[in-house]
Specification:
Elements: H1 5-47, H2 53-66, H3 75-87, H4 91-96, H5 103-112, H6 116-129, H7 133-141, H8 144-149, E1 154-155, H9 157-160, H10 165-172, E2 177-178, H11 190-199, H12 201-208, E3 212-223, E4 226-236, E5 241-251, H13 254-270, E6 280-287, H14 290-298, E7 304-310, H15 326-331
Parallel strand pairs: 2-7, 5-6, 6-7
Antiparallel strand pairs: 1-7, 3-4, 4-5
Domain YhcG PDDEXK nuclease: 171-324
InterPro entries: PD-DEXK-like_domain (IPR053148), tRNA_endonuc-like_dom_sf (IPR011856), YhcG_C (IPR009362), YhcG_N (IPR041527)
GO molecular function: nucleic acid binding
Length: 335
């Protein structure tokens, strides 16, 4: 019996997907069991906390004797277990939320985030984006929650985009954006910042958020025989649309919105496919007057937002190896 090559390859792919799915479910299950084990141990420790610090020291020693070679039961980690159980009295929350991320991530959130609502937000974002331990710490230290979840964002997305794209576009925005991987210089102009962002485009994609694929800087659009150049052009796989970003080193001015509106019209007319959602724009300025920005966007026909940016902090070098390659991200747009 002859085997149809294409049919055989389809079968192989199907089986591979089944194997990967099972492996993922097994890993999630193992992690959940480990988190619940640590949680239950933490509860037992807390029930006997009046026994003093020697109790944890003795417990760590006895566990080491009973289970030689088993890691995870140091004095330090047992104290984390006790803190974990004390901070999350709702066992259902631990089972359904905290147990979705690794123990090291939970410990980082316990250490660096104090409010419960913020902790839950970072846990869910870790699940959504698959952040490594280093990336999670960077996002917390850069104040991502304040910049993305609670910031007063200036945009016309809700009036120019249909749901659910409007809600997703608002959620995707940050204010300010932190370009902490750019060497700071007092006399930087737009092109200097643009070139620095493109040089470290992988870190730029991390700051922009999940789903962004970089298509180019100084992207040329020919309109009626005249050439126009977009600072930065992206495609967002979650929003299913092109994203035009314009950089300004000074304070926001109303005329910036008019220029961006034109670029978005050109992108929609030249690049946008029928299956794409309307393109959106983002003006990144060194500073802005929120009321001026709101009035400037109010009657613009195209969806756009205005945010500030900072370039004052430093990005840990170890993050670079944790990030996906640009080629891997960009290849997804072709699928």
């Amino acid at each position: 019996m002859l085997i149809n090559n294409n049919e055989y390859l389809d079968i192989v792919e199907t089986i591979k997907l089944e194997i990967k799915s099972a492996q993922y479910k097994a890993a999630v299950s193992v992690n959940r069991e480990l988190i619940m084990l640590y949680y239950n141990i933490g509860k037992i420790i807390n029930e006997h906390k009046t026994w003093g610090n020697k109790f944890i020291e003795n417990l760590a020693a006895d566990i080491r004797i009973s289970f030689p070679g088993t890691k995870g039961y140091s004095i330090r980690n047992l104290k984390y277990m006790a803190k974990f159980a004390a901070e999350y009295p709702d066992e259902q929350f631990v089972q359904t939320v905290s147990a979705q991320i690794p123990w090291s991530h939970n410990c980082a959130i316990l250490d660096k985030v104090k409010e419960f609502s913020k902790r839950e937000w970072y846990i869910r974002k870790t699940c959504e984006n698959g952040w490594s331990h280093s990336v999670l710490i960077h996002q917390i230290e850069s104040g991502l929650y304040e910049r993305q979840a609670t910031a007063e964002k200036i945009s016309n997305f809700e009036s120019r985009l249909a749901a659910p794209q409007s809600e997703l576009a608002v959620q995707t925005m940050k204010d300010p954006y932190v370009f902490d991987f750019i060497p700071f210089k007092e006399d930087m102009v737009e092109r200097d910042i643009e070139e620095a962002l493109v040089k470290d485009v992988t870190k730029l994609l991390l700051e922009l958020g999940t789903g962004f694929a970089f298509l180019g800087n100084q992207y040329r659009l020919n309109v009626g025989g005249d050439d126009f150049y977009i600072d930065l052009l992206f495609y967002n796989l979650n929003l299913r649309c092109y994203v035009v970003i314009e950089l300004k080193t000074g304070e926001f001015k109303p005329e910036f919105a008019g220029q961006l509106n034109f670029y978005l019209s050109a992108v929609d007319g030249i690049l946008k496919r029928d299956e794409d959602n309307p393109s959106i724009g983002l003006l990144l300025c060194k500073s802005k007057n929120n009321l001026v920005a709101e009035y400037a966007l109010k009657d613009m026909s195209k969806p756009m937002g205005v945010s500030e940016y900072t370039i004052t902090k430093s990005l840990p070098k170890e993050l670079e190896k944790q990030l996906p390659s640009v080629e891997n991200i960009e290849s997804r747009i072709k699928k």
